[in-house]
Write a structure and sequence with these properties.
About 0% of the residues lie in helices and about 35% in strands. By secondary structure, it is mainly beta.
C-alpha cells in the first residue's frame, strides 16, 4: 500500500512540483524556514538523465523542529532497466543493495553488483568497467584466472585511497570450476580527474567457512610490510594499504585481508577483542601506545576516504588505521605503518565515544552511535535514534546532538540501517537512516537524509529529506522477498548527496539510489 506510512503532513500536493523560477533557477520558499537553493545542473539537462522511468523526482523536505514547515526539492533517481534482457542492470547495484562512494574529483562509484559503475558528470552518463577477455597483468600472484567465464551474481566494496586511486573488491559467491567463491581485487589508477586505468587480480579467500561482501578501508602509508605481507608489486615504502573484511565476520577476529598493492591480498591476523591486550598469540603485536587524534591542514582526500560505518575503522592522518573501542575495556586497536598491532589509548585515558570514527578534512572527529544511553556498546538501544558527537581537540572533549524521527517504531539491532559522512571543506555532515513506521496497521520503511550544515556552529540538523515513497517493508539477508541489505551514502565535492533507498517505484522492487540536484546558494562559491 503506497505512501500510507508517511501520513499527510509528510507530502506536499503535486501543485508544488515544477516551482522553479526560470530566470535564476531558485526554488520559491519561505526564506525564514529554508535556505535558498539552486540547481547544480542546467534546466536543459533535467531531460538528459538516463533512467527511463521519471528520473527527476521531488522529495519532501521538513524542518526537524517543525513538520508543518515543508517544501520539495529535486533529486535524480536510478532503478532497474531492461528487465529480463541480457542488459538488465540498475546502474551498479544488485537485487538487494547499492555500495556507493565518491572521490575528490567528483566521480560517483557504485559497486553493489558485480563490477564498478561510475559517472564523472553527476549521473548524466555512466560507464561500467568489466575485465577484458584475458588478464595479462603479470603482477597477479595467484595467476591470471579469467573472470569473464560467467562467474554469476556478485557484489563488492569500493573506496578512494589516499593518493586518489580507487580500491575495490568484488565477490562472486557461487562456486566455479575450482569449487570455491571467486574474489577479484580491483585497482583504479587515477591518471586524471576523469581518467582511470583499471587493473584486477583473482584472489582466493579460502580461510573462512563463509565469506560475504566485503567492507573496505585504506591504511595511510608509507607502508613497510613484514615479508609475509609484502607482494611482488610492493615490498617497502608502499603509499597505502587496503584492508577488507567479510560482512559475515565484521568485528570478529577472522575474515580480515590486507593488500599493500591493491591487487594481491593476504590473510591478516587480528588481536582478540576480549583480551584487553594486543596478544601476540593472535597477531603481530607491539607495545601499547598513547597519542591524541588532533590533526590540522588535512587534504581534500580526507572527505572521501571515510569507509562505510560497518567497517568500524578509520584511517589515521599520521599513518596507520584505528579500530575505535575494539577491546572490551573500551581501548582502541591501532595498526601502524609496519603492519604491527597496538593497543591504543588517548593520553589522558579518555575513551572514544563509540565504535564509529570519521575524520574529515577540517580535522574534526565525528563519532556516531545508535545507542543513546551507552554509545560505546556494540548494539543499538531499540530506538531509531542516532547520537552524533564531534571533537575539535583530538578526542579530549566532545559535543553531542541526537537525531530521531518521531514516527519511528522500536527496532532490533539487525533492522536499523544507517550511514554517516562528513565534508570538512563545506562544514557539512550528513546522516542517512531507514526507520520503520506504521500506518493503518501496515509497517513500512522510510528513507531519510539529515543535512547538518555548518556543523561547527550548530549540530542540529537543518532539514530532513524523505527519500522516495516509503511504502515497502524490506528486510536484509538472504531468503527475504523484499530486500534492502544496508544503507549507503556519499557526498560529492559540490555538497550534493548520493544515497541508496527503496520504494515500490522500481519495476523489479529492487533498491534504488538518488542524487541531490538542488544545493544551497552558498555552496556555489566552492564550485
Amino acid at each position: 500500500m503506497k505512501s500510507s506510512i508517511l501520513l499527510t503532513f509528510m507530502f506536499l500536493s503535486l501543485s508544488f512540483m515544477g516551482c522553479l523560477e526560470p530566470e535564476d533557477k531558485r526554488t520559491f520558499i519561505p526564506e525564514e524556514d529554508f535556505e535558498k537553493t539552486r540547481l547544480i545542473v542546467d534546466e536543459s539537462q533535467l531531460s538528459q538523465f538516463p533512467y527511463s522511468l521519471d528520473p527527476i523526482r521531488n522529495f519532501t523536505v521538513v524542518k526537524p523542529s517543525d513538520f508543518d514547515s515543508q517544501i520539495t526539492r529535486k533529486w535524480v533517481v536510478y532503478g532497474t532497466e531492461n528487465i529480463g534482457s541480457g542488459d538488465e542492470h540498475n546502474y551498479g547495484g544488485n537485487c538487494c543493495e547499492h555500495y556507493i562512494t565518491t572521490d575528490q574529483d567528483g566521480t560517483i562509484y557504485n559497486l553493489g553488483g558485480e563490477w564498478p559503475w561510475y559517472s564523472h558528470d553527476r549521473g548524466l552518463t555512466w560507464d561500467e568497467w568489466v575485465p577484458g577477455l584475458f588478464n595479462t597483468d603479470l603482477g597477479c600472484e595467484e595467476g591470471q584466472l579469467d573472470p569473464t567465464f560467467d562467474p554469476g551474481l556478485g557484489e563488492g566494496s569500493i573506496i578512494q585511497a589516499p593518493n586518489g586511486d580507487i580500491l575495490a573488491m568484488t565477490w562472486f559467491p557461487y562456486p566455479s570450476t575450482d569449487g570455491v567463491d571467486q574474489f577479484y581485487a580491483i585497482l583504479g589508477k587515477k591518471t586524471g580527474p576523469t581518467q582511470i586505468e583499471w587493473e584486477y587480480c583473482w584472489n582466493t579467500f579460502d580461510k573462512e567457512p563463509f565469506y560475504d561482501r566485503s567492507w573496505q578501508v585504506p591504511v595511510v602509508g608509507p607502508i613497510n610490510p613484514p615479508p609475509e605481507l609484502a607482494t611482488n608489486l610492493c615490498s617497502s615504502n608502499c603509499p597505502w594499504a587496503s584492508v577488507v573484511v567479510s560482512n559475515f565476520w565484521s568485528y570478529n577476529e577472522q575474515g580480515y585481508q590486507i593488500s599493500v598493492d591493491g591487487l594481491n591480498y593476504r590473510p591478516l591476523d587480528i588481536p582478540d577483542s576480549n583480551s584487553n591486550q594486543c596478544n601476540a598469540e593472535y597477531a603481530r603485536c607491539g607495545q601499547d601506545l598513547e597519542f591524541d587524534l588532533y590533526f590540522e591542514d588535512l587534504g581534500p582526500e580526507w572527505d572521501y576516504m571515510q569507509p562505510h560505518r560497518e567497517m568500524r575503522a578509520s584511517p589515521i592522518p599520521t599513518g596507520g588505521l584505528l579500530f575505535p573501542r575494539w577491546f572490551s575495556d573500551g581501548s582502541n586497536l591501532f595498526l601502524d605503518t609496519e603492519l604491527t598491532w597496538h593497543r591504543h589509548m588517548l593520553p589522558n585515558g579518555s575513551l572514544l565515544p563509540s565504535r564509529s570514527l570519521v575524520i574529515d578534512s577540517s580535522g574534526a572527529l565525528h563519532s556516531v552511535s545508535c545507542n543513546t544511553a551507552d554509545p560505546g556498546a556494540k548494539g543499538c538501544d531499540g530506538t531509531f535514534n542516532l547520537t552524533h558527537q564531534i571533537s575539535y581537540d583530538g578526542g579530549y572533549t566532545w559535543s553531542n546532538q541526537s537525531h530521531h524521527w518521531p514516527l519511528a517504531l522500536s527496532v532490533s539491532d539487525n533492522t536499523f540501517e544507517w550511514d554517516f559522512q562528513a565534508d570538512g571543506n563545506l562544514d557539512l555532515a550528513v546522516i542517512s537512516m531507514r526507520v520503520q513506521t506504521e500506518s493503518n496497521g501496515t509497517s513500512s520503511d522510510v528513507d531519510l537524509v539529515f543535512h547538518i550544515r555548518d556543523y561547527s556552529e550548530s549540530m542540529e540538523a537543518d532539514s530532513v529529506t524523505v527519500i522516495g515513497l516509503g511504502d515497502l517493508d524490506a528486510t536484509s539477508g538472504a531468503g527475504n522477498d523484499v530486500r534492502f541489505d544496508f544503507s549507503s551514502m556519499a557526498i560529492l565535492p559540490d555538497g550534493g548527496v548520493v544515497v541508496a533507498y527503496h520504494d515500490s517505484s522500481d519495476p523489479n522492487t529492487d533498491p534504488m539510489f538518488a542524487i541531490e540536484l538542488e544545493l544551497p546558494e552558498s555552496y556555489f562559491y566552492f564550485i
